[in-house]
Request: fold
Amino acid sequence: MLNTITLFIGITLMYSTPLVFGGLGGMISERSGVVNIGIEGMMTVGAAVAVVAGIGTGNPWLAFLAAGLAGGLVALLHAFASITCKADQTISGIAINLMGAGIALFLCRLVFNAINTPSVENKLPKLFKASSLSGAAANLNVDWTTIIALIATVIMWFVLYKTKWGLRVRAVGEHPAAADTLGINVALVRYVCVIISGILSGFGGASVTLAIISHFAPTAISGQGFIALAAVIFGKWTPHGVYGACLLFGAAQAIAIILGGGSFAVPSQILSMLPYVITIIVLILFVGRSVAPKADGEPYEKGAR
Amino acid sequence: MNKASKILKKPITSTVIAVLFGFIVAAFVLLIAGCNPIEAFGILFRSVFSKPKYVANVIIKATPIILTGVSIAFAFKVGLFNIGAEGQFVMGTVVATIVGICLDLPPVLQFPVVLLSGMVAGALFGGFVGFLKAKFGIHEVITSIMLNWIAFYFCNFIAATKTFHQPNTNGTYPINASGLDFIFNWKKSEAGREVVINNEFLREAVGKTDMNIGFIFAIAAAIIIAILLKKTTKGYELRAVGFNQYAAEFAGINVRKNIIHAMVIAGAIAGLAGALQITGVAQKISTLGAFENYGFNGMSVALIANSSPIGSIFAGLLFAALIYGGGSIQSEIGAPSEVINIMIGTIVFFVALSKVIPVLADKLEKKEVKKDA
Reply:
């Protein structure tokens, strides 16, 4: 029983970690008023760059940072389109998803001449050495990325609600014209937020390919970015809400996996549906209407009314 | 207004420019990969147009994404983001397959019944999203993403269920022949086979491909949706809801009802795409390893078409040609076919940027005026 409980917690945290990174990224971007539907693409690029850098340098932490950098660069494209060119942010985000998948696979084909890469030698470490734990406690030996995701959530909450800079971000997302009159550089704030969103998404991708699986394949990132997007809305655009939404989603996955390992007569495909069904039910019962930041998705035009 | 800025302000111009930029970026990427871009584009062009068989294949590949494109473009016009076209498409394939296997009516009935069942499945899936949005205010993007995965696993569930699973395959039994596409049944018949074998063009375009009548449905759907949106009261209401929900409500339009209706229609079109894929091409469903992207590609189609249903026909053909031709770039000169993904991404990206072009045209105009004065 104890073993099952710790297993449940362990799987929950493992599944939710990449989602937390992506979700926080999406949240900060949208809080500043830029819809970022391209998280999936940024995560995919991050996942691929992480493996390429991980094999190249042999150092998983360098690879993790490289993934963040790559995600940030992709995000720069999105920022340029949606802030400087005032393009439709949804369209640009979809373009990022298409390009991200293309760039990731192209990179792998250039470097490894195959779209399924070999495995990285050094994965990101877990919290404790595997040999030092046994039994039920071993299930709780989570990845360091899980801890980083939690820390990132706390920092994000603190910055957003307790600092001047966070207030500016929220002002820009709610009412850019008012923020502008107070001397806040709307474009700069948005650029920073979108790039942070890309860096976090890149980390999210890397936390899949460097901590969970150890190689890149076209299916390495399959929908996590979109689930993260759902978590942003689900978590009502707050860091703690996003974290909770991701945990819930991870927990639903864990239930499906643990039930699948038991002697239940439920087909595995039906169990796999469970996380998605649970999410919809929770949405209907507890969450209800969620209101986006007021200027979310709208390019800011100086002097426009 | 001078001529240059008039041309620049046409929506089609920005699309053409976006496509052009797509090719330019793809050329650079090909250079990085060590391939000759001109040679690659030559192969791309040849592998799409040089044989009737190739053109037929492009049309076949375009059919589903035109329909999902129309579905998404239509939802866009009502201010809804139908990211769930993927799931609606999958449900269309699944239910059409179930009905196609279980029923065996005369072909005149069976074919429409199979299509209709796929449409109803898609419509219910879409309608559910609309209902949740109208009733509980749950964002359509979240529910759609969740329902996409539910459809995905439902498809795999049916494909593995004893009743439908065909032993030693990864899918179901094929649907009964009475539900298959008319062109397919005709070319398998005595008379049809005779004609196809003896006519060089038909042998290439029909005999060697999965040519089906789905394309006609796709064009019809695009036209019907265009008329619905532009010429009917219902379309006016739907567009009003999309344009300004509050103003629409103030004008006495029932916003919630229209949201649900819009999602039902969008879902039905995506479901039809799925059903046509079964009757015309796949004939059965197989276990999915990953999404087949018919819905997600429809998103690109709708965007390249600037959310115009009629434009989706051409955007769908372009998209299908690029994907189909991209395969042969890889097989002939070894250039990575991912270049095509990057290219399509770039095209969509520049479609997003193309809002700048009319603004530039305006500036150009003002400059001219100043010079004249």
Remarks:
- The radius of gyration of chain A is 20 Å.
